[in-house]
């Protein structure tokens, strides 16, 4: 049952999934979910307290943006581990924004809170009556006497995500101006009017708006002349701009499904990959002059050595990392993932391989697949990495990364998530810089970027 605006309800779960959803269809814009972690002042402590698609995990690990699922109902999801929320955070604001249209063009916009463990719905708010808004605070999780609660808010903004975020203390560089109002002012009456307010007669007092008396929001109050009769739905005049294109479906190329920036995700379940062993393959090459180690040297003749790694998390909360310098994993017991041999050059046809046992799909929560430079290059500039997934019963799924522009030594290839029992692969295509002064600690940066929060210690190198 949907909550009324302003109502609140207790949240008893230790961790929740906050789902923003709406009905897809022709002319419906896209929207993005985000979260702001507020201190007792009602504002963020810093810009790091803002979680959204470009900053998908809070440093505490308490909040992370899981991403979007397309379909008849589009869903964008945040995960909140209430037990990890820092003591000085009193409220988590859940917001939505659209940069391709107003919320008046959305149908069935809602936010709901689910128990992250069993999927039970704890709260739901269907947001009605949107018109020209381009951002909304839909709800908030807040503490009250040691108990977490959820409140339905439904506060709209005409100034988009920038205006909403600024209200809560986020610093926006070169924030775009608010979008123009979509209502069209009625044409001036034919009779002459005094110069101060030529379009209306008689002129209103200076302190009043050009309409007298002021109309209710989003309505015209035209004079009685027929030419002022407003259209049946004034918020839709003039006609809206063409809708932004929906996320494209991945295309088959050479017998493989190719994941790109424009078509970044695919459902393994919908393609029939529901069991068996799925191989994840990493191959790479270096463009001329790119393969060299620190100080321009090469180590023992090895040109380029990349390692295939993954961070994993199961539904029971257990988590860890699979990599060549530590745990190689196991297919028949948790984490049901195993790394094969370590390819030291990328020269073998098979490259490096990792196997995931899809017979245990229900036990996976998320798997983050990434590559790290061990030796042979200072960073990913000039390197071409190709990751290919080979699920049983489905075409291979391929993603490429060849556009590094900084000193990153780690490349996040794909995030595999269990979304309501459906295993979805999303191309990340994200390069991650190591911590300052610690070039060998790139895995720590990947952990922090995605909120895994493992404990890290120094390890020995390869023999």
UniProtKB/TrEMBL annotation:
Gene3D superfamilies tied to this protein: sav2460 like domains (2.60.60.30)
Residue numbers spanned by region Disordered: 168-258
Pro residues: compositionally biased ranges: 175-245
Signal peptide: none
Protein's name in the database: Tellurite resistance protein TerA
One Pfam family it belongs to: TerD
Family note: Belongs to the CAPAB/TerDEXZ family.
Entries under PANTHER family matching the protein: CAMP-BINDING PROTEIN 1-RELATED (PTHR32097), GENERAL STRESS PROTEIN 16U (PTHR32097:SF4)
UniProt organism field: Actinomadura namibiensis
Domain TerD: 1-168
